[in-house]
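Q: Sequence in, structure out?
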Amino acid sequence: MKKILFILFMSTATIAWGNTIVPMNKAFSSLVDLIPFLTDKNKFMEKKNEAYILERMNNMDAAFKTAKHENLLKQDIFAPSLTLVRSNIGNSRDAFKNGKKDYALWRMQEITTQCMDCHTRLPPNHSSSFQDGSKYIDQTKFKDTYNLGLAQLIVRQYPEAKTTFTKVINESILKNQFQAITLPLKQLLLIETKVMKEPEQMLMILKHYESKKGLSLELKQLMAQWQARLKVLSNIPQSKRSISSDKEAQEFMLKTMKPLFKNDSLYIGKYDPDLLYASGVLSNFLFEYPDASTAPEVMYWIGISEKYLKRDSFFGSGELFLKQCVRRYPKNPIAKKCLSEYKESIEFEFTGSRGTDIPLEIETELNMLEDLVGEKKAL
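A: Exactly. Output:
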């Protein structure tokens, strides 16, 4: 299989290394500057931060425009394309300038999610244009150690990210700030189950922390539920933690995915290890076999798995896979199921105390997707 060099955000095929790495470093630097605002809505909304945020958006936009690789990676695993990422950055910047900060924040968070999420889809030993990404992380920029861990996730520095998230947990425990350990625990769970496929390691981590005094009853219960599911995953032989044929993919979706989605506990986080593990296994398969006959179904199951994970504060591109399923396979029966799940996800994202308020740009996109599958346009 032709070797692919992975770049930041869009996972497009790298044709000219020298023309790619410099602008991507600039884009990454701007993203690093934005992370504290993307993880804190109040900071993003404050007027005093407008000039700084807009400057970084402009820098990202300029960096992507100077990238000298126009061929789009055809693998569905790396959707969206460079063109879509550029469009998203432009849309976010324009919305921000026009005062639509909620929409701008959602778009920028989606781009950040694409970056972090797509990087976890490659097999952990696969080459990357940011294989030495830690060189481009200026740690002095990070007042929040957790955000440093997110930056390390972006550049696939998994050992460093694990060390950073563990540091956040330990420091929070020393300060009796037990509410602050849930998110870094979730990032460790993502690394060990989705990326590394080593649930045994996460079991050891949870056992280390489960007896700490001060943990809330809710977190103790969640950790116990995770351990129960991780024990199940640990019983899967190492040789069986990947799939390499349509037959194996069908069997995995039939025996693992479909039963999983009959559980109401998907809504409370109990099955987070299963969803992460399944997303990692199916994503690796789609990366290695992009033209598999099972690709539409694989995208569907990745999409709905990560729809739930995103609601439980994980980084996931579920909506992107559901959209790609519709765009790539509009005549396949699974496309309408993908569209239905995508609609539900969008309604969830943009429903609040004032009701549902879906931005016009997304309504337009929904109409286009409905046209593809032959459904009546959204009103």
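The longest helix spans residues 17-38.
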